[in-house]
Specification:
Layout lengths: L22 H15 L2 H20 L14 H63 L3 H20 L5 H12 L1
Amino acid sequence: MAADDFDVPRSSRRRLPNIAMSPETFGRGAEGFARFMGTPAFLVGMTVFCAVWLIWNTLLPEAWQFDPRSLNFTLLTLILSLQASYAAPLILLAENRSTDRDRVEFEHDRQRAERNLADTEYLAREVAALRIAMREVATRDFIRSELRDLLKELEEDAKEPVRDPVRSDRSDDEQVG
């Protein structure tokens, strides 16, 4: 851009430095910050910080005070406001990332449930097919009853006198002749 280009606003000529931070890295930092702000250590630390600040600026001589009570602790108020103004968006960012992760996890769970349902239905069909096929297969009780019947027949045959087929043929020939 030329220096004498008066139709372009000056502010658009300036460029902010490019900060090389990925959204993922920034998001992880925001989550870490939000997680830290919810810890008892942070709450106790912040309470101690504020208590020391108030005691220092209330009880010590005015020459040592840097945020006097007479000015309603203006500096402490500004520091806490600044901390809150950064904390709120970072907590919301962390919450949004958590919601996105939950949404993705829910989708994976739904897909897994669909696969499990399909597998269960397939297995139910296979079990039903096996039951139908088992009706056509001889059961142990059926085979035992058939073997008992055969054994009875063999025992009955064993009780009858065995006729020699060769002799019975001759005796029939002898009777004829």
